[in-house]
Design goal:
- The protein is α+β, with helices and mostly antiparallel strands.
- It has 2 helices and 6 strands; from the N terminus they run ααββββββ.
- It has a 3-stranded antiparallel β-sheet with strand order 1-4-5. It has a 3-stranded mixed β-sheet with strand order 2-6-3.
- A hairpin with a 5-residue loop joins β4 and β5.
- It is flat, with a radius of gyration of 17 Å.
- It starts with 6 loop residues before the first helix and ends with a strand.
């Protein structure tokens, strides 16, 4: 008997992965250097990274981070500040606010990311 693919459950999983990615970035930004609490916190973040990566891989999904990449219209991201620039300006992805999630080993995007763009230096 074939199972019917449950898009609602898959969508919930994709959103959970996106939230995990956001939480991971938030936790990394809160690390405290050189004290006992900071070391414990860093260890917890490392543990989360390991479990998060394993779970994402288990479901055949991949997170794509375009931070630092030159912006092109075909990137699977929604730039939140694109209107701030002229069409001919060279831009790059300064910060990902939301991850792009795709099926591993394919070009199929299941969630477009959101990003902040910046002008490239001349």
């Amino acid at each position: 008997m074939d199972r019917v693919f449950d898009y609602e459950k898959f969508s919930a999983l994709v959103e959970l992965i996106a939230e995990g990615w956001r939480m991971n970035h938030f936790m990394k930004s809160l690390r405290v250097a050189d004290d006992k609490l900071g070391k414990k916190f860093s260890n917890q973040v490392a543990r989360f990274d390991k479990k998060f990566s394993a779970a994402t891989e288990t479901f055949g999904l991949e997170i794509v981070d375009f931070t630092g990449c030159e912006f092109e219209a075909g990137l699977p991201i929604a730039p939140i500040n694109l209107a701030d620039f002229e069409a001919e300006e060279k831009l790059f992805v300064a910060t990902m606010l939301d991850p792009t999630i795709k099926i591993s080993n394919s070009a199929e995007i299941v969630k477009r990311g959101a990003a902040v763009l910046r002008r490239q230096s001349k």
